[in-house]
Fold this protein.
Amino acid sequence: MRDRAAQAEILGRAKARLDTLSLYPRPVRIDRARIVVAPALFRLPWFRSFDGYAAWGTIFLREAPAAKHDDLVCHELCHVWQMQHHPIAMPLSYLRTGYARNPYELEARLAAGGT
């Protein structure tokens, strides 16, 4: 996503939602977070079922975000927040528990749905 102002606005809205929660000792930092629209990534087998994916400070989206994607960006920013506090344990947890029962995944769903 090339429009930095739009990206900052979308990330700011998601951060404001997460800031209402006390899941971690420090609020999510978005100073280095960025959104990358990468439809080709979501054609790969592992990514096909996702519309968004977070990798540390980067949120990958299948399509350009709009207001209708606020829940998705909030969910993915929650993963960024999780990785800010558990940079190794969080990504490795998917190897241990898989996707459906992963506690970090459940937490991100609740965070996006409850704010």
The radius of gyration is 13 Å.
